[in-house]
Request: fold
Amino acid sequence: NYTLEDIMTQAYPVMPVLAVERVEDAIPLAQALKAGGLNVLEVTLRTANAMAVIEAMKTVAGVIVGAGTVTRVEQLHELVRIGADFAISPGATPALLAEGKRVELPFLPAIATVSEMMQGLELGYEHFKFFPAEAAGGTAALKSFAGPFPKVRFCPTGGISVKNFKDYLALDNVTCVGGSWLVPSDALAEQDWDRIEALARQACFLV
Ligand code: 3PG
Reply:
């Protein structure tokens, strides 16, 4: 079992944000990303088979597999049942924040403003996704958050790419970044595992 701290530091430099339609792609995709150096994977619950994809990826040794796009409390319970390693939401509702502290699963809520962050802090959260990172102020916003809240740690996602991810990782309050750029939808559609492995390796190499 991992803590949020483990997950966000082991995800260094980057957590691929995945939308996987076919369960048959789960294992080769996880193997390709791991071979390229990325071992913390966020499988968004945007596809019909996402839960089955997480279960399949969990059979690959050495990868930490969680869910993204968690928007309902019932999804947290289902993720505990299937043995997912963590859950990430694009936002933070009172219900998710409360249940996220009760379930046996590290839960990373997202914030875009200081007031949202303060609601999470009141409930004991010190790690947040910053979403949508580029649209909500990017690295300038994160630098501003560090003044009043130096202990809070972020995983920014949303609009991050090979061009700007290092700017985020250079900040003291950023422990990892997430993004979909590592697994382009055409590469996944074509089952181009070599290209996906090469993109993962490039991200690791650039750091
Ligand atoms: C997420 O769910 O974290 C975002 O959709 C990822 O954003 P990106 O597609 O801009 O990388």
Q: What stands out?
A: The two ends are 27 Å apart (CA to CA). The beta strands are 14-18, 40-44, 64-68, 87-88, 107-108, 110-111, 127-130, 153-156, 177-179. The CA atoms of residues 71 and 89 lie 6 Å apart.
